[in-house]
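Subject: Sanity check before I submit

Could someone independently write out the structure tokens for this chain? I want to compare against mine line by line before I put it in a report. The sequence has 404 residues.
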Amino acid sequence: MIITVLGLFLLSACAGREEEKKLGQTRQKKESSAEVSQFSDIDGTTWQDSWVEKTASGVAVNIDINAYTTIPDLKRMSVVEVEKYEFDNKNKKELLEGLFGTEIWYCENKSKKAPKDFVKLKENDYKGNQYLGERDGIRYRLSYETSHVESENSFIYLEPYDWKDVAPDTMKEYTDIGVGHADIRWQSENQCKMSKEEAKEAAGDFLQKAGFPDLVKTDEGVLRWDGDAADDLQGGAAIDGWYFAYSPGVEGAAFTASGVERGARSDDAYYHRYPTNCGVRVCVTDKGVIKAEWDNPIRILSSVTGVKLLPFDTVREIIRSQMTEYAAYCYKEYYSTKKLKSLRFDRMELVYCRVSDPDSRNRFTYVPAWRLRNNNGEEVYFMNAVDGSLIREWEVIWGELKMW
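---
Independent answer below. Compare away.
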């Protein structure tokens, strides 16, 4: 009798523990997790929903969601604080000495003077935005430019002082030599003796010395050389060297590759004080890195790795609750003249989104975010995937745009 009762008790206890384990697993799936794999079951599915929202002014807006959902192939995501790269004395010193050592000259014009004819840079006296130095016996010009046509663009260029110093032997006879990049599929035509892996290592070493170690490769190809001949004769071309493009990123995930950097809109630059197309392009030949271009460079200040992401059921609930505010925002800021009647979303993606720092004009934070958009890029909605807050798409308010 005692044995029978004890057996039933043990069976009941085991069943209870098994049920508790199942409940725990179910509960865990609904809780926040740092693993991106928690969304694997919705990757490639479509979220369908529709309802009517009314703005505070009483405007009825139809919300139509028929969004194909994509999830990035990442283990986890981070919150990353970055800062605009300023071409100040400190950064000039680090960049110039990292690339050229201490033998540096001012170079404020494009005349064909020898280095001895330029004014040599004195310690801690970084005036101007063009400098001349040598790398592996070849003279290069480093220059910095800014543009405020649409927003606060900044660019850094490194290129040879004379292109014939780095051009392939078959191109030296031509005038106006230029270099661009071609698809990696042309690598079988590449005359460069350096392998792609060796070239990539050289590019990485170059970026490290320049002070930009936190970059992720986003593209690669080969170098195509073109030259014009004198007396209107036919010019020449050659494939010689390697091309690599990089983006700021974290844990192997490039921010530009997330699909956010260049925006859903073609005129993305209008909506950011400091544009989000931040990247570096590097050209490598047997002579080393012969050309580099930085667009709107930034540097990573800090990173919180593996932040917890809200479960998808919670995400959808929050999106529905925020649509009243978002529809009112769209109507007030840029659709009032178009008599907004509906918002349609065809795609939903987990991406990185950049947000402004309220206390600093030059600092920003990349956060995991859910982006809803339509195929035309006319409606774009961002929600912070960590805390569920609504992210304003633009850093520049609509009033400033009208002023411009």
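---
OP: Matches mine. For the report I'm noting this point. Residues 79 and 367 are 5 Å apart (CA to CA).
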